[in-house]
Amino acid sequence: MLLRRIGVLVAVIVLLFALGRITSVVVDWAWFSSIGYVSVFWTAFAAKAALFVVVFTVSTLLLWANATLALRSAGKPRARLPAAFDPYVTVRALPGPMAGSYGLPLSPLLWRLLIFALAFVLGLLIAMGETGSWDLILRFVYQSPYGGNDPLFDKDIGFYLFSLPVYVAVKNWLLWILLLATLMTGSIYFLHDDISLDPPPRRFSSAAIAHGSALLGLYFAIKAWSYALDRYLMLYNDNGVVVGAGYADVHVELPAVWLLIGLAAVAAIVAWANVRLRTIRLLIAAPLLVFGGSFLFAELIPGIFERFFVKPNELRLETPYIRQNIALTREAYNLGQIAVKPFPAEQDLTFQSLKDNSGTIDNIRLWDWQPLMDTYAQLQEIRTYYRFLDVDVDRYNLGDSYQQVTLAARELDPLLLSANAQTWVNLHLLFTHGNGAVMSSVTQKSAEGLPIFYLKDIPPIATGGPPITEPRIYFGQGSPGYVIVKTSTPEFDYPKGKDNAYARYDGADGIPIGGIGWRALFAWHMEDLNILLSDYITSESRILLHRNIKDRVGTIAPFLQLDRDPYVVISAGRLYWMQDAYTTSAWFPYAKPEPDGGDLNYIRNSVKVVIDAYNGTVDFYVTETADPIVATYRRIFPALFKPLDAMPPDLQKHIRYPEDLFNIQALQYRAYHMDAPEVFYNREDLWQFPREPTAPDEMNAGGETRMAPYYIMMRLPGEPQTEFFLMLPMTPSKRENMIAWLAARCDLPEYGKLIVYEFPKDKLVYGPFQIEALINQNTEISQQISLWNQMGSRVIRGTLLVVPIGNSILYVSPLYLRAQSGQLPELKRVMAAYGDRVVMEETLPGALAALFKESARVAGLPAPTGSSPSGPVDERARKALAGYDRALDRLRAGDWAGFGAELDALRPLLEELSRQPAAR
Fold first, then answer.
1. Quick one: which of 242, 554, 774, 789 has the fewest CB in 10 Å?
2. Could you give the CA distance from residue 548 to residue 579 in angstroms, rounded to a whole number?
3. Dist. CA 725–CA 801, nearest whole Å
4. What are the E-state strand segments in 86-199?
């Protein structure tokens, strides 16, 4: 009776588990079908199913066969054992008719059933754990060659990216099976008194010795294969000087590994021979042979050789291996494509230089994301249930100008509704989507210090920005839960005065759930009975799943690593999300892993993903066709990926170089820009990210942090037009002066090209932290900031931007004010620095005018002398001075076109004056 009840309980648990898994598979199939990627689902499902069946079958059979053999070979069960090992199941103090104490003997049939059940469960657990490696197997089967070989074994690097990980995984799987088989076998022999661990003499039956010898022989056979794989794993060693195989690895450890392969093979043969000899001595001698040899040849001797031979001659011996490490790390992170150019860092910036680079000046970003996020929230969230989750930086052709802008999507979070309004209908049927976006200038501000909006309000109103004809956002950076559309109740669209506007979804996404069967299925899957019971659901109703864009992309392509910062794009009146995706690996030989603690050592931005915020369509566009990993995935999923040329042209204008990739590349480039092994070994030219101060808040008193890359519009030296870049200054290690700046081009057709501009070694160029120090040391600025703080306002220092203009460097930093009890930051001042001069004015044009008015070289314009000359020449001089003053007025007002016109009108007067003879 007890066993029957246990069997029923186990059967119910298995049935519920199976039902849950089947439901999940059906829902996934329906979802993939609804978005047009059912072939992707079937490919992944078939791979998972095949891997599960193979691993489960092999694991279960091996465990069952091994334990069954032990049961047949073992003697009779012990007569008396501790309670935990008693071969009789004793039940005491059970309630009802089962009360009392009695024994239930384990008959041979029950032993066999117990062994099969245990092998079945363990095989199931192993298979479930290994199923997650399905993409590893597919990459192995469909692998593409890399096209380059490693320098030690001369194997195509594709072997390391695709084959070696599978061999290691198979080896680990076999070791797990062997470990579990050994535990099952040992338990059976112990319970049958074939192994006695009582006080001496300890006893092992001949059957137990023979079986243990066979298992030990299998272990050493796998160990010999493991040592063979260890040869290739040397290419990932890190001795602090070289990443990859070093001098000691190649000349001592590699021969030692071959010796260990031989010792393991000999130990396997000895163990298998002991199946007939059945002596405990050989069973002990074989492990001592292998593990003693491993300690001696793989640890002790290489360590002594490294310490007493390699270390005293390290640079000479390790030079060729350092060179290999540099070359392959640069290749793994695509650092070899970085073009190195000189940057003179001249101090000859003039007003004419500003005019020639108006595309840069007009797009200097003064609005940092955090103050701007707070401002957007106060001015444009409209209702408490709307949220701006991020502020993005992009560029648009607005009118006849190419402008950098900031924008944010207005998403809806129904969890921000009041507690009594968070009903099931509101959360899943009524409040289904966000609405529109805001866009503002990166440079301009209103008289009150607020952003100048190009796009605002609900419905979206374009005031210079791109119009939006479909503003509804069903898929975004929030959107965590499911919603049901096309129900009998209208969806809330946006607030309209005292009333609300309503809408009905007519997009392409969604799984039909009108039938009672589908409703029951989703009620079970979502653990939400309301889906089955609600009268609002009609025959046309659809359920929208995976509405968070990262979850959506990750569900379709879990093998891609996603950039942390997706961004919204407005194109053809619709809202889209751009998500950068990477192909990565931790198996690139000789390459140094990520500096920030990750284990990845290969990365490519191979895919751009576009998600329609309304329809939910997801398109994957390949940007790096030469990447062997994405080429492999294109073989696996031919219907998933599209060429970049297939992306709509207007969306192509908004692709940008991703921050995560750029940050990783810049971190590696700090050391790996040094391509001379001697310089690299001594770290003579190590770079670092600049430091920048952090603003104090209620939680801390402020400090410093590592400067982050930022997007900027500028015209490179020698280039004809302004472009959109991602850039970062660099400073020498443990110093604050700037030594270079690294930039990634974002505009097609130059997209993806990286450039580093290096400063002369003999010239001092202030770094961001030094400029911050100059600002803090400026008496007028410090006094003004102190005065604001004393008046009840909180001063917020913005990010200092390094702005290359021509062959010079300009520094610009915004300053915001916020009331102590308020949440609306205002852009109050702009600080600018050039050389060792620092100014602070209300506007950027004003700051530039003040900065260069103090300079002795202002586009060659004559400065006023204070005299009152007369005559024709003096009249022309007065006209020139008046023109100069008008030019400054235009500059302060931000009218660059007017400023240029005044300079053009001034030129003839200056030329005429220059031809006059000097006064005597």
1. 789
2. 12
3. 13
4. 88-92, 101-105, 195-196
Residue 639: C-alpha distances to residues 619, 636, 643, 681 (Å): 11, 9, 11, 47
Q: Which amino acid is at 641?
A: F
Q: How far apart are CA 65 and CA 181, in angstroms?
A: 9
- Residue 107: per-residue pLDDT: 79
To the nearest 10 degrees (0 to 180), the angle between helices 280-294 and 206-233 is 10
Question: What six digits make up the tokens of 340?
Answer: 């190195």
Q: Tell me the C-alpha distance between 895 and 103, whole Å.
A: 98
How far apart CA 38 and CA 557 sit, in angstroms, is 13
Handedness of CA 843, 845, 850, 851 (dihedral sign): positive
Q: How far apart are CA 393 and CA 654, in angstroms?
A: 10
Tokens 């004056």 sit on residue: 913
Distance of CA 600 to the CA centre of its chain: 11
Question: E strands within 790-848?
Answer: 793-797, 801-805, 808-819, 826-834, 837-841
What's the pLDDT tens digit per position in 601-627?
A: 999 999 999 999 999 999 999 999 999
For the question of whether the overall pTM of this predicted structure is more than 0.85, the answer is yes
Distance CA 40, CA 559 (A): 12
- Tell me what pLDDT residue 82 has: 46
Bridge partner list, 815: 797, 829
Q: Tokens at residue 539, please?
A: 């025959």
- The secondary structure of residue 759, as a DSSP letter, is P
- The rounded distance, in Å, linking the Cα atoms of 545 and 883 is 64
Element containing residue 24 per DSSP (H, E): helix 2-34
Query: Among candidates 612, 608, 611, which has minimal Cα distance to 658?
Result: 608
Sheet of 511-512, strands arranged across: 483-485, 542-544, 511-512
pLDDT of residue 702: 63
d(CA 432, CA 435): 10
Question: Which amino acid is present at 536?
Answer: Y
Tokens 């050389």: give the residue: 835
| Residue 800 tokens, joined | 């200092």
Select from 702, 711, 707, 703 the least CA-distant residue to 688: 707
Placement of tokens 């209620």 in the chain? 698
Torsion of CA 131, 137, 139, 140, to 10 degrees: 160
pLDDT at 90: 44
What does the pLDDT look like over 378-392, one tens digit per residue? Answer: 999 999 999 999 999
- Report which of 334, 241, 239 is spatially closest to residue 668, judged by C-alpha positions: 334
Between CA 526 and CA 544 the distance in angstroms is: 12
Residue 18 has, within 13 A of its CA and on its CB side, a CA count of 7
Alpha helix ranges (H) inside 658-714: 659-672, 677-682
Q: Which single residue is written with the structure tokens 């031809």?
A: 915
How many beta carbons lie within 10 A of that of residue 900, not counting itself? 19
Q: Can you give the C-alpha Rg of the chain in angstroms?
A: 36
Lookup: tokens for 883: 């023109």
Residues of the chain with pLDDT below 50 are: 79-104, 698-699, 854-871, 873, 918-920
Comparing CA positions, the residue from 895, 885, 784 lying closest to residue 838 is 784
**Rounded-to-integer distance, Cα 244 and Cα 233, Å:** 9
**Across-strand partners of 575?**
570
Give how far the C-alpha of residue 165 lies from the chain's centroid of Cα atoms, to the nearest Å: 22
